[in-house]
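Box S1 | Example of a co-folding query
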Amino acid sequence: MTRGDVDVVVVGAGFAGLSAARELDGAGVSVAVVEARDRVGGRVRNHDIGGGKVVEVGGQWVGPTQDHVLALAKDVGVDTFPTYDTGARVLHFGGRRGTYRGTIPRINPVVLADVGRAQARLESLAKKVPLEEPWTAPKAEAWDAATFESWLRRNTLTASGRTLLALGIEAVFACEPGDVSLLHVLFYAHSAGSFQMAIDTGGGAQQDRFVGGSQLVCAKMAAALGAAVHLERPVQAIAVDGGGVTVRSGPDEWRCRRVIVSVPPLLAGRITYEPAMPAWREQLTQRAPMGSVIKCNALYEEPFWRAEGLSGQATGDGEGARVVFDNSPPDASPGILLGFLEGDEARRLGRADAATRRTAVLDSFVRYFGPRAATPADFVELDWQAETWSGGCYGTLFGPNVWTRYGHALRQPVGPVHWAGTETASVWCGYMDGAVSSGQRAAAEVLRALA
Ligand SMILES: Cc1cc2nc3c(=O)[nH]c(=O)nc-3n(C[C@H](O)[C@H](O)[C@H](O)COP(=O)(O)OP(=O)(O)OC[C@H]3O[C@@H](n4cnc5c(N)ncnc54)[C@H](O)[C@@H]3O)c2cc1C
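Box S1 (continued) | Returned holo structure for flavin-adenine dinucleotide
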Protein backbone atom coordinates (compact mmCIF):
# COMPACT_ATOMS: atom_id res chain seq x y z
CA MET A 1 0.00 0.00 0.00
CA THR A 2 1.51 3.35 -0.97
CA ARG A 3 1.21 5.98 1.74
CA GLY A 4 1.87 8.94 -0.45
CA ASP A 5 4.20 11.54 -1.83
CA VAL A 6 5.96 14.12 0.31
CA ASP A 7 8.96 16.41 -0.11
CA VAL A 8 10.93 14.81 2.71
CA VAL A 9 10.75 11.59 4.71
CA VAL A 10 12.35 11.62 8.16
CA VAL A 11 13.29 8.18 9.49
CA GLY A 12 12.95 8.09 13.29
CA ALA A 13 10.84 10.12 15.73
CA GLY A 14 13.36 10.84 18.46
CA PHE A 15 14.48 14.36 19.40
CA ALA A 16 16.52 14.60 16.17
CA GLY A 17 13.91 13.37 13.70
CA LEU A 18 11.07 15.36 15.23
CA SER A 19 13.21 18.52 15.37
CA ALA A 20 14.08 18.09 11.68
CA ALA A 21 10.43 17.55 10.76
CA ARG A 22 9.37 20.54 12.86
CA GLU A 23 11.81 22.80 10.97
CA LEU A 24 10.71 21.48 7.58
CA ASP A 25 7.03 21.72 8.41
CA GLY A 26 7.57 25.28 9.63
CA ALA A 27 9.22 26.11 6.28
CA GLY A 28 6.16 24.84 4.40
CA VAL A 29 7.81 21.63 3.18
CA SER A 30 5.66 18.48 3.28
CA VAL A 31 7.09 15.80 5.51
CA ALA A 32 6.40 12.25 6.75
CA VAL A 33 8.07 10.96 9.92
CA VAL A 34 8.38 7.18 9.83
CA GLU A 35 9.07 5.59 13.22
CA ALA A 36 9.70 1.94 14.10
CA ARG A 37 8.38 2.00 17.67
CA ASP A 38 4.77 2.39 18.79
CA ARG A 39 5.72 5.69 20.46
CA VAL A 40 7.79 8.77 19.78
CA GLY A 41 10.86 9.82 21.78
CA GLY A 42 13.36 7.06 20.94
CA ARG A 43 15.99 7.12 23.69
CA VAL A 44 13.72 9.17 25.99
CA ARG A 45 10.74 7.53 27.58
CA ASN A 46 8.33 8.45 30.37
CA HIS A 47 7.04 5.70 32.63
CA ASP A 48 3.63 6.39 34.19
CA ILE A 49 3.72 6.02 37.99
CA GLY A 50 0.10 7.04 38.55
CA GLY A 51 -1.46 10.25 39.86
CA GLY A 52 -0.53 12.03 36.62
CA LYS A 53 3.19 11.61 37.39
CA VAL A 54 5.99 9.99 35.46
CA VAL A 55 9.50 8.77 36.00
CA GLU A 56 11.94 8.78 33.09
CA VAL A 57 13.61 5.54 32.08
CA GLY A 58 15.69 7.11 29.31
CA GLY A 59 17.44 10.47 28.84
CA GLN A 60 16.23 13.15 31.23
CA TRP A 61 18.64 15.88 32.40
CA VAL A 62 19.40 19.21 30.82
CA GLY A 63 21.91 21.83 31.82
CA PRO A 64 23.53 25.15 31.01
CA THR A 65 24.70 25.71 27.41
CA GLN A 66 22.21 23.12 26.13
CA ASP A 67 20.53 25.97 24.32
CA HIS A 68 18.91 23.99 21.50
CA VAL A 69 16.87 21.64 23.64
CA LEU A 70 16.06 24.33 26.21
CA ALA A 71 14.76 26.70 23.51
CA LEU A 72 12.73 23.88 21.96
CA ALA A 73 11.18 22.94 25.32
CA LYS A 74 10.27 26.57 25.93
CA ASP A 75 8.72 26.73 22.47
CA VAL A 76 6.47 23.74 23.08
CA GLY A 77 5.65 24.83 26.64
CA VAL A 78 7.60 22.37 28.81
CA ASP A 79 9.21 23.83 31.96
CA THR A 80 12.29 22.69 33.82
CA PHE A 81 12.95 22.24 37.54
CA PRO A 82 16.23 21.74 39.39
CA THR A 83 17.56 18.27 40.14
CA TYR A 84 17.49 17.71 43.91
CA ASP A 85 21.02 18.65 44.94
CA THR A 86 20.81 19.61 48.61
CA GLY A 87 22.77 17.86 51.34
CA ALA A 88 25.69 15.50 51.39
CA ARG A 89 26.73 12.99 48.74
CA VAL A 90 27.78 9.45 49.49
CA LEU A 91 30.95 7.75 48.28
CA HIS A 92 31.29 4.03 48.97
CA PHE A 93 34.82 3.23 47.95
CA GLY A 94 37.23 0.43 48.80
CA GLY A 95 34.66 -1.06 51.21
CA ARG A 96 34.17 2.18 53.19
CA ARG A 97 31.27 4.61 53.16
CA GLY A 98 31.80 8.34 53.53
CA THR A 99 29.79 11.49 52.90
CA TYR A 100 30.92 14.83 51.54
CA ARG A 101 29.54 18.17 50.38
CA GLY A 102 30.40 19.88 47.12
CA THR A 103 32.10 18.01 44.31
CA ILE A 104 35.32 16.84 45.98
CA PRO A 105 35.03 13.63 48.03
CA ARG A 106 36.90 13.17 51.30
CA ILE A 107 39.42 10.54 50.31
CA ASN A 108 43.16 9.98 50.56
CA PRO A 109 44.75 13.28 49.37
CA VAL A 110 47.32 11.41 47.28
CA VAL A 111 44.49 9.79 45.30
CA LEU A 112 42.68 13.10 45.06
CA ALA A 113 45.80 14.82 43.68
CA ASP A 114 46.28 11.95 41.23
CA VAL A 115 42.73 12.29 39.90
CA GLY A 116 42.98 16.07 39.79
CA ARG A 117 46.19 16.02 37.77
CA ALA A 118 44.91 13.44 35.26
CA GLN A 119 41.62 15.26 34.83
CA ALA A 120 43.34 18.62 34.32
CA ARG A 121 45.46 16.98 31.61
CA LEU A 122 42.37 15.49 29.99
CA GLU A 123 40.55 18.84 30.01
CA SER A 124 43.48 20.62 28.41
CA LEU A 125 43.91 17.98 25.67
CA ALA A 126 40.15 18.01 25.00
CA LYS A 127 40.26 21.72 24.14
CA LYS A 128 42.68 20.91 21.32
CA VAL A 129 40.12 18.73 19.50
CA PRO A 130 38.23 20.65 16.79
CA LEU A 131 34.53 19.94 17.28
CA GLU A 132 33.59 19.87 13.61
CA GLU A 133 36.51 17.68 12.55
CA PRO A 134 38.02 15.84 15.54
CA TRP A 135 40.27 13.89 13.19
CA THR A 136 42.23 17.07 12.44
CA ALA A 137 43.40 17.47 16.08
CA PRO A 138 47.19 17.94 16.34
CA LYS A 139 47.82 14.45 17.69
CA ALA A 140 44.66 12.83 16.32
CA GLU A 141 46.46 9.74 14.98
CA ALA A 142 48.17 8.93 18.29
CA TRP A 143 45.11 9.82 20.39
CA ASP A 144 42.86 7.71 18.21
CA ALA A 145 45.19 4.70 18.24
CA ALA A 146 45.09 4.65 22.07
CA THR A 147 42.20 3.52 24.24
CA PHE A 148 41.20 5.68 27.17
CA GLU A 149 42.27 2.76 29.38
CA SER A 150 45.85 2.85 28.09
CA TRP A 151 45.99 6.64 28.56
CA LEU A 152 44.64 6.23 32.10
CA ARG A 153 47.38 3.75 32.95
CA ARG A 154 50.05 6.13 31.73
CA ASN A 155 48.58 9.21 33.39
CA THR A 156 47.69 8.02 36.89
CA LEU A 157 49.92 6.89 39.73
CA THR A 158 47.37 5.17 41.96
CA ALA A 159 44.94 2.30 41.39
CA SER A 160 42.24 4.19 43.30
CA GLY A 161 42.73 7.23 41.07
CA ARG A 162 42.26 5.03 38.01
CA THR A 163 39.11 3.50 39.48
CA LEU A 164 37.58 6.90 40.22
CA LEU A 165 38.26 8.18 36.70
CA ALA A 166 36.93 4.91 35.27
CA LEU A 167 33.72 5.54 37.24
CA GLY A 168 33.47 8.91 35.49
CA ILE A 169 33.83 7.21 32.10
CA GLU A 170 31.17 4.65 33.00
CA ALA A 171 28.83 7.44 34.06
CA VAL A 172 29.27 9.53 30.92
CA PHE A 173 29.59 6.79 28.26
CA ALA A 174 28.01 3.63 29.78
CA CYS A 175 31.12 1.69 28.85
CA GLU A 176 34.55 0.73 30.16
CA PRO A 177 37.66 2.88 29.53
CA GLY A 178 39.00 0.20 27.17
CA ASP A 179 35.93 0.44 24.91
CA VAL A 180 36.66 3.91 23.56
CA SER A 181 39.59 5.68 21.97
CA LEU A 182 41.30 8.55 23.78
CA LEU A 183 40.28 10.82 20.88
CA HIS A 184 36.63 9.86 21.39
CA VAL A 185 36.76 10.83 25.07
CA LEU A 186 38.57 14.10 24.31
CA PHE A 187 36.08 15.02 21.58
CA TYR A 188 33.12 14.18 23.79
CA ALA A 189 34.46 16.22 26.71
CA HIS A 190 35.05 19.24 24.47
CA SER A 191 31.64 18.77 22.89
CA ALA A 192 30.07 19.07 26.37
CA GLY A 193 32.25 22.08 27.23
CA SER A 194 34.45 19.98 29.53
CA PHE A 195 34.50 16.57 31.21
CA GLN A 196 33.55 18.33 34.44
CA MET A 197 30.42 19.79 32.76
CA ALA A 198 29.44 16.28 31.69
CA ILE A 199 29.64 14.90 35.25
CA ASP A 200 28.39 17.88 37.28
CA THR A 201 24.90 18.35 38.66
CA GLY A 202 24.70 22.10 39.50
CA GLY A 203 26.30 23.98 36.58
CA GLY A 204 26.56 20.77 34.54
CA ALA A 205 24.67 18.27 32.40
CA GLN A 206 22.58 16.96 35.32
CA GLN A 207 21.42 20.37 36.60
CA ASP A 208 17.74 20.37 35.58
CA ARG A 209 14.86 18.14 34.62
CA PHE A 210 11.70 18.59 32.55
CA VAL A 211 8.36 18.98 34.32
CA GLY A 212 6.26 16.11 32.96
CA GLY A 213 9.33 14.21 31.73
CA SER A 214 11.60 14.61 28.71
CA GLN A 215 9.35 12.54 26.45
CA LEU A 216 6.70 15.23 26.81
CA VAL A 217 8.81 17.53 24.61
CA CYS A 218 8.78 14.89 21.86
CA ALA A 219 5.07 14.17 22.35
CA LYS A 220 4.29 17.85 21.91
CA MET A 221 6.40 18.09 18.75
CA ALA A 222 4.65 14.99 17.38
CA ALA A 223 1.21 16.34 18.25
CA ALA A 224 1.95 19.50 16.27
CA LEU A 225 2.97 17.37 13.27
CA GLY A 226 -0.25 15.35 13.58
CA ALA A 227 -0.90 12.82 10.82
CA ALA A 228 2.60 13.30 9.40
CA VAL A 229 3.95 10.96 12.11
CA HIS A 230 3.61 7.25 11.32
CA LEU A 231 4.30 4.82 14.19
CA GLU A 232 5.12 1.09 14.06
CA ARG A 233 6.69 1.49 10.63
CA PRO A 234 10.31 0.25 10.79
CA VAL A 235 12.06 1.40 7.63
CA GLN A 236 13.72 -1.54 5.92
CA ALA A 237 14.80 -0.01 2.64
CA ILE A 238 15.62 3.32 1.04
CA ALA A 239 15.85 3.22 -2.77
CA VAL A 240 17.17 6.12 -4.81
CA ASP A 241 16.37 6.39 -8.52
CA GLY A 242 16.51 9.13 -11.15
CA GLY A 243 13.13 10.51 -10.09
CA GLY A 244 13.54 10.60 -6.32
CA VAL A 245 13.59 8.35 -3.28
CA THR A 246 11.33 5.51 -2.14
CA VAL A 247 11.25 4.71 1.58
CA ARG A 248 9.83 1.28 2.41
CA SER A 249 8.36 -0.15 5.60
CA GLY A 250 6.70 -3.52 5.03
CA PRO A 251 3.94 -2.96 2.51
CA ASP A 252 4.04 0.82 2.95
CA GLU A 253 5.98 3.16 0.68
CA TRP A 254 6.64 6.88 0.66
CA ARG A 255 7.99 8.74 -2.36
CA CYS A 256 10.03 11.84 -1.61
CA ARG A 257 12.77 14.12 -2.89
CA ARG A 258 15.07 13.91 0.14
CA VAL A 259 15.29 11.67 3.20
CA ILE A 260 16.76 12.38 6.64
CA VAL A 261 17.87 9.26 8.52
CA SER A 262 17.87 10.25 12.20
CA VAL A 263 18.75 6.91 13.82
CA PRO A 264 22.07 5.94 15.45
CA PRO A 265 24.72 4.89 12.86
CA LEU A 266 24.49 1.25 13.99
CA LEU A 267 20.77 1.13 13.10
CA ALA A 268 21.24 3.22 9.95
CA GLY A 269 23.58 0.43 8.80
CA ARG A 270 20.79 -2.12 9.11
CA ILE A 271 18.65 -0.37 6.50
CA THR A 272 19.08 -1.66 2.93
CA TYR A 273 20.06 1.07 0.49
CA GLU A 274 19.60 0.88 -3.27
CA PRO A 275 22.12 1.58 -4.66
CA ALA A 276 24.32 0.39 -1.80
CA MET A 277 26.00 2.98 0.40
CA PRO A 278 29.58 3.88 -0.56
CA ALA A 279 32.16 1.68 1.18
CA TRP A 280 33.31 4.46 3.56
CA ARG A 281 29.79 4.92 4.91
CA GLU A 282 29.19 1.17 5.17
CA GLN A 283 32.48 0.72 7.05
CA LEU A 284 31.57 3.51 9.48
CA THR A 285 28.28 1.86 10.42
CA GLN A 286 30.11 -1.44 10.96
CA ARG A 287 32.22 0.30 13.62
CA ALA A 288 29.57 2.15 15.63
CA PRO A 289 28.52 0.05 18.66
CA MET A 290 26.23 1.43 21.36
CA GLY A 291 26.89 1.77 25.10
CA SER A 292 25.55 -0.61 27.74
CA VAL A 293 23.12 0.75 30.32
CA ILE A 294 20.20 -0.38 32.45
CA LYS A 295 18.35 2.44 34.19
CA CYS A 296 16.67 1.48 37.46
CA ASN A 297 14.26 3.56 39.56
CA ALA A 298 13.16 2.49 43.07
CA LEU A 299 10.03 4.24 44.35
CA TYR A 300 9.57 4.93 48.10
CA GLU A 301 6.72 6.56 49.99
CA GLU A 302 8.99 9.52 50.67
CA PRO A 303 12.60 10.57 49.94
CA PHE A 304 13.78 9.41 53.39
CA TRP A 305 17.42 10.25 52.60
CA ARG A 306 16.59 13.97 52.42
CA ALA A 307 15.56 14.03 56.11
CA GLU A 308 18.95 12.51 56.89
CA GLY A 309 20.73 15.38 55.15
CA LEU A 310 21.61 13.39 52.04
CA SER A 311 21.15 14.58 48.47
CA GLY A 312 20.42 11.09 47.15
CA GLN A 313 23.53 11.30 44.97
CA ALA A 314 25.96 8.45 45.49
CA THR A 315 28.92 6.82 43.78
CA GLY A 316 30.62 3.53 44.53
CA ASP A 317 33.01 0.93 43.21
CA GLY A 318 31.03 -2.12 44.30
CA GLU A 319 28.42 -4.28 42.59
CA GLY A 320 25.06 -2.90 41.45
CA ALA A 321 24.41 0.80 40.84
CA ARG A 322 27.60 2.85 40.87
CA VAL A 323 25.95 6.16 40.07
CA VAL A 324 22.79 7.15 41.95
CA PHE A 325 20.55 10.24 41.96
CA ASP A 326 17.39 11.46 43.66
CA ASN A 327 14.87 11.21 40.83
CA SER A 328 11.73 12.21 42.74
CA PRO A 329 9.06 14.30 41.01
CA PRO A 330 8.96 18.05 41.77
CA ASP A 331 6.61 17.54 44.78
CA ALA A 332 8.87 14.78 46.21
CA SER A 333 6.06 12.24 46.27
CA PRO A 334 6.99 9.46 45.85
CA GLY A 335 10.68 9.54 46.71
CA ILE A 336 12.67 7.96 43.88
CA LEU A 337 16.23 6.72 43.81
CA LEU A 338 17.66 6.26 40.35
CA GLY A 339 20.56 3.88 39.89
CA PHE A 340 22.52 3.24 36.71
CA LEU A 341 24.03 -0.11 35.77
CA GLU A 342 26.69 0.79 33.23
CA GLY A 343 29.39 -0.85 31.14
CA ASP A 344 30.45 -4.25 32.48
CA GLU A 345 27.89 -4.15 35.29
CA ALA A 346 25.09 -3.68 32.72
CA ARG A 347 26.55 -6.51 30.64
CA ARG A 348 26.77 -8.82 33.67
CA LEU A 349 23.37 -8.00 35.15
CA GLY A 350 21.71 -7.78 31.73
CA ARG A 351 22.24 -11.54 31.52
CA ALA A 352 20.71 -12.13 34.96
CA ASP A 353 16.98 -12.40 35.69
CA ALA A 354 14.99 -9.35 36.81
CA ALA A 355 14.88 -10.47 40.48
CA THR A 356 18.67 -10.85 40.66
CA ARG A 357 19.11 -7.44 39.07
CA ARG A 358 16.66 -5.80 41.47
CA THR A 359 18.45 -7.37 44.46
CA ALA A 360 21.84 -6.19 43.22
CA VAL A 361 20.59 -2.63 42.74
CA LEU A 362 18.75 -2.48 46.09
CA ASP A 363 21.78 -3.95 47.90
CA SER A 364 23.85 -1.09 46.52
CA PHE A 365 21.19 1.44 47.60
CA VAL A 366 21.34 -0.04 51.13
CA ARG A 367 25.13 0.42 51.15
CA TYR A 368 24.64 4.09 50.28
CA PHE A 369 21.45 5.00 52.19
CA GLY A 370 20.83 2.35 54.83
CA PRO A 371 18.24 -0.41 55.34
CA ARG A 372 15.16 1.64 54.39
CA ALA A 373 16.36 1.48 50.79
CA ALA A 374 15.79 -2.29 50.76
CA THR A 375 12.01 -2.16 50.50
CA PRO A 376 10.73 0.17 47.80
CA ALA A 377 7.03 0.23 46.94
CA ASP A 378 7.89 -0.23 43.29
CA PHE A 379 10.90 -0.84 41.04
CA VAL A 380 11.02 0.27 37.41
CA GLU A 381 13.90 -0.65 35.12
CA LEU A 382 14.71 -0.50 31.44
CA ASP A 383 17.56 -2.42 29.85
CA TRP A 384 18.50 -0.31 26.83
CA GLN A 385 20.83 -3.07 25.58
CA ALA A 386 17.70 -5.10 24.82
CA GLU A 387 15.90 -2.32 22.94
CA THR A 388 15.83 -3.38 19.28
CA TRP A 389 15.38 0.19 18.03
CA SER A 390 18.23 1.62 20.10
CA GLY A 391 20.75 -1.24 20.25
CA GLY A 392 22.10 0.14 23.53
CA CYS A 393 22.63 3.61 25.04
CA TYR A 394 23.44 6.33 25.87
CA GLY A 395 24.98 6.58 22.46
CA THR A 396 27.57 5.43 19.97
CA LEU A 397 31.07 4.51 21.21
CA PHE A 398 33.98 5.02 18.88
CA GLY A 399 36.84 2.64 19.57
CA PRO A 400 40.36 3.13 18.21
CA ASN A 401 40.85 4.36 14.64
CA VAL A 402 37.21 5.15 13.91
CA TRP A 403 37.16 8.96 14.24
CA THR A 404 40.34 9.34 12.17
CA ARG A 405 39.32 6.85 9.45
CA TYR A 406 35.55 7.34 9.24
CA GLY A 407 34.60 10.52 11.14
CA HIS A 408 34.14 12.33 7.81
CA ALA A 409 31.31 9.92 6.93
CA LEU A 410 29.12 10.75 9.94
CA ARG A 411 27.31 13.79 8.50
CA GLN A 412 28.20 13.76 4.81
CA PRO A 413 24.99 13.27 2.78
CA VAL A 414 24.98 10.48 0.21
CA GLY A 415 22.98 11.79 -2.75
CA PRO A 416 19.54 12.71 -1.40
CA VAL A 417 20.12 10.81 1.89
CA HIS A 418 20.98 13.08 4.85
CA TRP A 419 22.04 12.06 8.36
CA ALA A 420 20.84 13.39 11.71
CA GLY A 421 20.86 12.04 15.26
CA THR A 422 22.81 13.07 18.33
CA GLU A 423 25.85 11.13 17.09
CA THR A 424 26.21 13.65 14.25
CA ALA A 425 26.28 16.69 16.55
CA SER A 426 29.44 18.63 17.26
CA VAL A 427 28.12 20.28 20.46
CA TRP A 428 26.63 18.11 23.21
CA CYS A 429 27.13 15.04 21.04
CA GLY A 430 25.32 12.09 22.67
CA TYR A 431 22.81 14.30 24.47
CA MET A 432 19.25 15.47 23.72
CA ASP A 433 20.67 18.89 22.91
CA GLY A 434 22.93 17.41 20.23
CA ALA A 435 19.97 15.49 18.83
CA VAL A 436 17.93 18.69 18.46
CA SER A 437 20.75 20.66 16.79
CA SER A 438 21.49 17.73 14.47
CA GLY A 439 17.87 17.64 13.32
CA GLN A 440 17.91 21.38 12.71
CA ARG A 441 21.21 21.12 10.80
CA ALA A 442 19.91 18.30 8.59
CA ALA A 443 16.68 20.20 7.91
CA ALA A 444 18.72 23.25 6.85
CA GLU A 445 20.78 21.04 4.49
CA VAL A 446 17.60 19.69 2.93
CA LEU A 447 15.99 23.11 2.59
CA ARG A 448 19.10 24.34 0.77
CA ALA A 449 19.00 21.32 -1.54
CA LEU A 450 15.31 21.75 -2.31
CA ALA A 451 15.54 25.51 -2.94
C1 LIG B 1 19.22 5.66 30.06
C2 LIG B 1 19.56 6.89 29.28
C3 LIG B 1 19.93 8.05 29.93
C4 LIG B 1 20.26 9.19 29.21
N1 LIG B 1 20.48 10.34 29.90
C5 LIG B 1 20.52 11.53 29.21
C6 LIG B 1 20.43 12.75 29.90
O1 LIG B 1 20.24 12.79 31.12
N2 LIG B 1 20.51 13.91 29.17
C7 LIG B 1 20.65 13.90 27.80
O2 LIG B 1 20.70 14.97 27.20
N3 LIG B 1 20.71 12.72 27.14
C8 LIG B 1 20.62 11.55 27.80
N4 LIG B 1 20.59 10.36 27.13
C9 LIG B 1 20.83 10.38 25.67
C10 LIG B 1 19.62 10.95 24.92
O3 LIG B 1 18.48 10.25 25.31
C11 LIG B 1 19.88 10.80 23.43
O4 LIG B 1 21.07 11.49 23.09
C12 LIG B 1 18.78 11.38 22.54
O5 LIG B 1 17.51 11.06 23.02
C13 LIG B 1 18.99 10.85 21.12
O6 LIG B 1 18.00 11.34 20.25
P1 LIG B 1 18.06 10.95 18.70
O7 LIG B 1 16.83 11.50 18.08
O8 LIG B 1 19.37 11.32 18.14
O9 LIG B 1 18.04 9.35 18.65
P2 LIG B 1 16.89 8.34 19.13
O10 LIG B 1 16.22 8.86 20.33
O11 LIG B 1 17.54 7.02 19.21
O12 LIG B 1 15.85 8.36 17.94
C14 LIG B 1 15.93 7.51 16.83
C15 LIG B 1 14.54 7.01 16.52
O13 LIG B 1 14.60 6.22 15.34
C16 LIG B 1 13.82 5.05 15.51
N5 LIG B 1 14.34 4.04 14.57
C17 LIG B 1 15.48 3.32 14.66
N6 LIG B 1 15.63 2.53 13.56
C18 LIG B 1 14.55 2.80 12.77
C19 LIG B 1 14.13 2.32 11.48
N7 LIG B 1 14.82 1.42 10.79
N8 LIG B 1 12.96 2.80 10.98
C20 LIG B 1 12.22 3.74 11.64
N9 LIG B 1 12.58 4.23 12.86
C21 LIG B 1 13.74 3.77 13.40
C22 LIG B 1 13.95 4.71 16.96
O14 LIG B 1 12.88 3.94 17.42
C23 LIG B 1 13.98 6.10 17.60
O15 LIG B 1 12.69 6.52 17.95
C24 LIG B 1 20.26 9.18 27.80
C25 LIG B 1 19.88 8.02 27.14
C26 LIG B 1 19.52 6.89 27.86
C27 LIG B 1 19.03 5.70 27.14
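Residues 11-17, 34-37, 42-44, 58-61, 234-235, 262-264, 267, 271, 293, 295, 384, 389-390, 393-395, 421-422, 430-433, 435 surround flavin-adenine dinucleotide (CB under 6 Å). The mean pLDDT is 97.
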